[in-house]
Prior knowledge:
Blueprint: E1 3-7, H1 12-16, E2 21-23, E3 27-31, E4 39-43, E5 49-55, E6 61-67, H2 76-92, E7 101-105, E8 114-119, E9 122-127, H3 130-134, H4 136-147, E10 151-156, H5 160-163, E11 169-174, E12 182-186, E13 189-193, H6 208-217, E14 222-226, H7 232-239, E15 244-249, H8 252-263, E16 273-277, H9 280-289, E17 294-299, H10 311-326, E18 329-339, H11 346-360, E19 365-370, E20 389-394
Parallel strand pairs: 1-4, 9-10, 14-15, 14-17, 15-16, 17-18
Antiparallel strand pairs: 1-3, 2-6, 4-5, 5-6, 7-8, 8-9, 10-11, 12-13, 18-20, 19-20
Amino acid sequence: MSATITLQPGREKSVLRRHPWLFETSIAHFNGRARAGDTVDVLAADGRRLGRAAWSPRSQIRARMWHFDPVTPIDDAFFRARVAAAWTRRGALGLVPAHGLRVLHAESDGLPGVIADAYGDTVVLQLTSAGADKWRAAIVSALLRATGCARVYERSDSDVRGLEGLAPECGWRAGQAGDGPLEIVEHGLRMEVDIQSGHKTGFYLDQRDNRALTARLAAGRRVLNCFCYTGGFSLAALAGGASEVLSIDSSGPALQQAQRNLALNPALPAARAEWLEADVFTALRDLRKAGRRFDLIVLDPPKFAPSASHAASAARAYKDINLNALRLLEPGGLLLTYSCSGGIGVELFQKIVAGAALDAGVDGRVLARLGPGPDHPVGLAFPEGEYLKGLLCQI
């Protein structure tokens, strides 16, 4: 018989609204025995059975809901059904692994702590919760069955696993490394994907649509791409007809891969590309001192605020880069600015950019609000899933 957790009075409301997280403070009693990742039954204070969850005794998020039906078994068939449903939804979007796509987006696909991205015949899996970790074999099997991909590589090395009491786990779970680098083709551009040591699962799939937008806006413009990583926005700008593209990143290996990506696309005007290994915060100030000006600037920094507790320091960092970028824009210039920090909400992010514009002495307007592509859905009951937000601004 499953262990049970009984909630504090009134705490069942979030579960009834289908929010998947149960925090330590919401639990009144734990009955039975359960190890990390085991399935527990969730009860309201009056004894009503609310659903089934994965137990995580080391995390402040003490349980994550697998299902809001109290009698549904959590077994291999459950994971096959959830993965198959997610794959069907992606197919309806017209997305295919050859272009790169997110197959599973954790809570928003009904699988808390499970991220899976497909690149060609390879799925890269990231497990960030105790429940996901326990069901690794079932999830791998379900992914192979649903996607038809031949290989699964696990990249469960994010810091959040430590909050669950889990050690990093990386390696091949099905198949093995192929010959040569892994590649995808995004909007006609060939790109290398380093699944073993690249950021996240090897590529920023969430920015796919925003790179296409950059290409549409770039014609004839001088473009600055900050935190360029492996050059996705840079190549998009070149493909869109930018007159010049300066790309900045602090990582030498990332810039080397960006230049390999450019070489994979010989139709692009490589002579218009300039690469700079530097700290972006310093480089923006140096560019202003040098009198450089741009017509379109992309700011796609790493996560400055992994949680709300880091919001204050992150806000200062976001304001700094936006302030100095705005000072480099010509009148009528465009700023594509992003935050992938879960601790910075949409309203706060716009407030930060507005403050930067005020301090830069420019008038600006928001032309569009930006986010990830449709393979990165946000569950209506799980607003925490909305991590990537962006603004297209004009001064």
